[in-house]
Specification:
Radius of gyration: 46 Å
Number of helices: 10
Largest sheet: 5 strands, antiparallel
Bound molecules: zinc ion
Number of strands: 8
Distance between the termini: 50 Å
CATH class of the largest domain: Mainly Alpha
Helix content: 55-70%
CATH topology of the largest domain: Helix Hairpins
């Protein structure tokens, strides 16, 4: 891998890490606000319980005051009783006294109800105060943890930024601005290639691009997503080994119908011979030869994987047909191949 590209691979790793740390740090004020709002609601429960108790006491005083003034009235009525002139007046006085006594009973009833309610409110207040105390301690702990984590993130972010600075200094300027441009629009500017695919967009690389990339000659961009491509041989060892061991089991010569070639698909013969992979294709409608590709040091199963992706196996008994019919398949053979397709 070119050394500039090696620096960029490392740079991307550190850039991603720095962005992650930054987003954690950005979230800190929100976390603290959430913690504070938990505490605020615990405080409010205490305040509400205190206010309800206070209102109950005021209500009690109001009833006591009423009772006092009713007693004063009764006292006044009794004082008037010595000066009554007749039975009518005396009866009216007694009725006033009896009415006032009835009202006093109602107020006394209310006072008793209020005292019962006050007991329940006092218990609720004690509970809310205890909860506030527990929550305050818990919230202090959470705040402390959040701040300590943010300090650690801040330190890590500073280290990452120093590293980013160093790495950027080691990359050629044009390449660096390409990296920045792609990173801005795509998130990540680099994509690793595995099994001949760009791992960011999953598109299969053209064989030439793939072999240049593996030869570490140039810094290449994905045709599809535009990301800078890199190739790590160790990450492809398994695939290569699997391919090599598969040679013994794989066919060395195969006729296929390839829907992606020609105007309405093509009949193509794929072969591996002396380390070279060959594909020769004939238009499925006219039988005319439309493509011939030879790739050195390759297996057709991997180098022409794109063509083989939706291809369908055909049965052809006779060997070497492609050598005999270099330009055009004869009509009877074309007919025979077409016959093997579904809906033909
Ligand atoms: Zn891509």
């Amino acid at each position: 891998m070119p050394s500039d590209l090696q620096h960029l691979v490392e740079l991307q790793r550190v850039d991603v890490e720095a962005a992650r740390l930054q987003s954690l740090l950005d979230a800190i004020p929100k976390t603290l606000a959430r913690i504070e709002s938990q505490l605020a609601s615990a405080r409010k429960r205490v305040e509400d319980a205190r206010a309800a108790l206070k209102a109950g006491e005021a209500e009690k005083r109001r009833h006591e005051h009423e009772i006092q003034s009713l007693n004063d009235q009764i006292h006044k009525f009794r004082g008037q009783s010595s000066g009554v002139k007749n039975n009518e007046q005396y009866k009216a006085l007694l009725s006033e006294i009896s009415h006032a006594e009835g009202e006093i009973a109602v107020h006394e009833e209310k006072i008793i109800e209020g005292m019962l309610a006050a007991d329940a409110l006092a218990a609720r207040l004690a509970e809310a105060e205890a909860a506030l105390q527990t929550e305050s301690a818990e919230i202090e702990r959470q705040k402390h943890d959040a701040l300590r984590e943010s300090e650690a993130d801040q330190t890590a972010l500073e280290a990452a930024q120093t590293r980013i600075h160093e790495l950027r200094a080691g990359v050629e300027e044009n390449l660096l601005s390409t990296y920045d441009r792609i990173r801005k629009s795509r998130g990540n500017a680099l994509a690793e290639v595995r099994e001949q695919r760009c791992t960011a967009c999953q598109v299969l690389l053209r064989p030439q691009v793939y072999s240049n990339l593996r030869a570490s000659r140039d810094i290449l961009q994905c045709d599809s997503c535009g990301r800078l491509l890199y190739y790590v041989p160790e990450n492809n060892v398994v695939a290569v080994a699997a391919n090599t061991s598969a040679i013994a089991h794989q066919a060395e010569h195969e006729w296929m119908f390839v829907p992606s070639l020609g105007s309405s698909g093509a009949f193509a013969v794929f072969s591996n011979h002396k380390g070279n992979a060959t594909m020769k294709a004939y238009d499925a409608v006219t039988g005319e030869a439309i493509a011939r590709r030879v790739e050195k040091n390759a297996l057709y199963q991997s180098i022409f994987a794109a063509e083989l992706q939706n291809a369908r196996n055909l049965f052809v008994d006779e060997a070497g047909l492609e050598d005999r019919y270099k330009e055009q398949l004869p009509p009877e053979l074309l007919e025979e191949l077409r016959h093997q397709l579904p809906n033909s």
